[in-house]
Specification:
- It holds the Pfam family Asp_Glu_race.
- By secondary structure, this protein is an alpha/beta fold.
- It folds into two domains: about 5-100 and about 210-245, Rossmann fold; about 105-205, Rossmann fold.
- Helices cover about 40% and strands about 15% of the residues.
- It has eight helices and eight strands.
- It has helices at about 15-25, 50-70, 90-95, 100-115, 125-135, 160-175, 195-200, 210-220, and strands spanning about 5, 30-35, 75-80, 100, 115-120, 145, 185, 205.
- Strand 5, helix 5 and strand 6 (about 145) form a beta-alpha-beta unit.
- The two termini are about 30 Å apart.
Length: about 250
């Protein structure tokens, strides 16, 4: 059985419930979704500073799942449910199971259905980090990044309608001004609005949660694991000091 851990690296329980619901909606029968938050971290991830601290909570959560898997309930693959791909490279060093971030997965899907596309992210502070990821994943010539001018947590609760309208306006600008042929949702908290936005815009709208979950599900079915031959090799055994002592690599 394929068992996928979907880890939201911020502390929003509402976001975690939302991404877990979407993941369970799209997987094949027999695939199990384990959706969770870390035990510590920022309320939301908006820029480099939040990302640095969220990565530690993510890795701690993964270590717990890996330890549990050694005695049963093994995880087939991990989805890091943040569009900044928070801690993904470090996470790949921690496990043999495949690890996928939302940005990388969404860009792979977008490049199949459109020759040019746009990421719409909530805040301007996330634009440059996402542009760096777009470059890393080789999509700079195809992709533009725009901010909707709302907070990440606005997609929950009483501000959700306002956030959706701002997102839609920004997406329409991408289509009209940037030549985008598809829209990529640049936040895990947008996962439940992809179908609505796609129907209203009339172009493909890619949700990173769905894209990442389906890619990890396919990798599990194919028996693919993270290579330990190079960059993602397990970290060498050494001591860590202070509050990071518990994170020291072990044999």
């Amino acid at each position: 059985m394929t068992r996928i851990a979907v880890i939201n690296p911020n502390m929003s329980v509402g976001f975690t419930e939302k991404v877990g619901l979407q993941a369970r909606r799209i997987v094949a029968p027999g695939t199990e979704i384990v959706a969770l938050n870390p035990q510590f971290g920022p309320a939301s991830i908006e820029g480099y500073y939040d990302e640095a601290f969220a990565s530690v909570g993510l890795l701690a959560a993964m270590r717990g799942l890996e330890a549990d898997g050694a005695s049963g309930g093994k995880i087939s693959g991990y989805v890091v449910a943040c569009f900044d791909d928070t801690g993904v490279d470090a996470a790949r060093c921690l496990t043999k199971a495949p690890v996928m971030g939302l940005c990388e997965a969404a860009l792979r899907f977008a490049a199949i259905v459109a020759s040019r596309f746009a990421i719409v992210t909530p805040m301007a502070v996330s634009v440059r980090p996402l542009e760096h990821l777009v470059s890393k994943y080789g999509a700079s010539s195809q992709c533009v990044v725009r901010a909707a001018g709302v907070r990440t947590l606005d997609f929950e609760g009483e501000n959700a309608d306002m956030a959706y309208l701002a997102l839609k306006i920004s997406a329409e600008n991408c289509l009209a001004e940037d030549g985008a042929e598809a829209i990529v949702l640049g936040c895990a908290g947008m996962t439940d609005i992809a179908d609505r936005l796609q129907a209203e815009l009339g172009v493909p709208v890619i949700d990173g949660v769905s894209a990442a979950v389906k890619l990890i599900e396919a990798m599990g079915m194919l028996g693919l694991q993270t290579s330990k031959a190079g960059a993602y090799a397990s970290p060498p055994v050494k001591t860590y000091d202070g509050i990071f002592a518990a994170f020291a690599p072990v044999a």
